What does this fold into?
Amino acid sequence: MSDRNIDDLHPFVAEACRLTIADCQAKLGVTVIATSTRRVFEEQEALYAIGRTTHLDCKPVTESKPGHSWHEYALAWDFAPIIGGKAVYGDEKLIQAIAEIGVSHGLRWGGDAGFVTAGIVDGDHFQMTHGLTIEQALTLYQQGGIQAVWNAFEAATPAS
Ligand SMILES: [Zn+2]
It folds into this structure.
């Protein structure tokens, strides 16, 4: 089950998400929806265990180790443009236009050069991390739960 509730994101990310969706409607005339927001840590853990330590008759279903997805810290969301009532994937020009709008609201797009260099192209993904690394986030989570990650995220926010 994928959580699509924007309210489950960190408030800064939720705001950027809503502004991006509103701008896509206003500037591109395209409805954009959030297809996945927060992924519960325990869910990712259970998912990662499939084919590894549980359900040994199955193949692994994810390569993302528990704690290694920004969705688990409620700092990422995935999107889809809706045209004619259907989610449209593969329209690169449209995705690029949506990406630019998201970036203008402080989000990092999963298809940018840095992701491509790292060998991870995630064209329907936005995240906001304020310079935290995923390893730092995981360590903070283990020490103090998601609030510890959020505290560090907020502390790193440039004043504006
Ligand atoms: Zn994602």
Observations:
- The chain has a mean pLDDT of 91.
- The longest helix spans residues 134-155.
